Amino acid sequence: MSKTITPYNTAEAKKKQVQTMFDNIAPKYDLLNRILSFGIDVYWRNVAIKALKKYDPKYILDVACGTGDFSIAALKTNPEKIIGVDISTEMLEAGKKKIAAKKLENKIELIKGDSEQLLFDDKSFDAVTVAFGVRNFENLDIGIKEMYRVLKTNAPLIILEFSKPKIFPVKQLFNFYFKAICPIIGRLLSKDARAYTYLYESVSAFPEGEFFLQHLRDAGFKTTTCRRLTFGICSMYIAIK
Questions:
Q1: pTM of the model
Q2: For residues 53 and 77, is the Cβ–Cβ distance under 8 A?
Q3: Omega into 27 within 30° of 0, i.e. cis?
């Protein structure tokens, strides 16, 4: 099991702390994503969307959808409907404004929900996606099992998540940037430096690679793969029910 890392290190449940953190940083979240990743997060999403498109999904569930960037990008797969779920009201409100501005309300619906208690019937979706959200689950295995439950047979779960580079000097640069620089930028732009200290800590504690694939297999997924992107800074996991 991975070590439990929480945003504010209080006695409050991780789920509630994560909700508070994302509510706090929601107004600057998209800007911070672009700045902190140097825009590479757009490339990572495009890689995942290309993989998703092969399955021709008509009904997609985007878990931990945040402000809806991945949900909007997933329209490239030509689905009938995308439902995004997140626990942060403020992130959802920011996402709804983007969707309304693009006049996409008939295609994308964002709703408040808990990844560990998805309010959908068994085998409801042709695909489930999570972009940089699984490390925030309070109980990783329950969240994975819930996503497995709502997936149709032979449907994919596609996950993007930060991982730890192994090669010199990327490993050293990654550690310095995420540990020292990100909290400073986060404090300047979002007034919540702790949120970006948590980013480094949660990535460091996450059971990446083969360890995470084992969690997916334990939940029942029959085929699991991991593709490391950008020198291992990000990993894309694909699991088939």
A1: 0.95
A2: yes
A3: no
